[in-house]
Amino acid sequence: MTFTPKTPAFEKAVKDSRNLKAKPDNDELLELYSLFKQGSQDPPFADAVKPGMFDLTGKAKYNAWSKVNEEGLTAQQAQEKYVKLVNSLKEKYGFDG
């Protein structure tokens, strides 16, 4: 996969996601994680280490990222979806920015 630079909107959304007034639910957190990983490609999915058998949190994160990767979402598309998701979470939970 070729390198896709992080857009300013994506970088701002990453910062904004850390300033929500309340913690998103687990499904929202997994979606944020998977879109972030796919959008940043650091490391690329093909190079990601698969979590161990007893690392349940790691497995959930890996599986969420795997699903996004299997859908064929490009890094650019993932960044755009990440920005939209963070904006919706800012409306839902409030934002200290």
Could you characterize the architecture of this molecule?
The protein has 97 residues and is mostly helical. The chain has helices at residues 8-17, 26-40, 56-70, 75-93. Helix 1 (8-17) packs parallel to helix 4, helix 2 (26-40) packs across helix 3 and helix 2 packs antiparallel against helix 4. The longest helix is centred in the C-terminal third of the chain and has 19 residues, at 75-93.
Keywords:
mainly alpha, globular, 97 residues, 4 helices, single chain
**Helical amount among residues, as a percent range?**
55-70%
Low-confidence segments, given as residue ranges, are: none
Distance between the termini: 34 Å
Structural class: mainly alpha
Put simply, the count of helices is: 4
Write down the secondary-structure element order. HHHH
Q: Mean pLDDT across all residues, rounded?
A: 94
Oligomer: single chain
Number of strands: 0
Tell me, briefly, the overall form.
Answer: globular
Strand content: under 5%
Based on CA atoms alone, the radius of gyration comes out at 13 Å
Summarize the biggest pleated sheet.
none
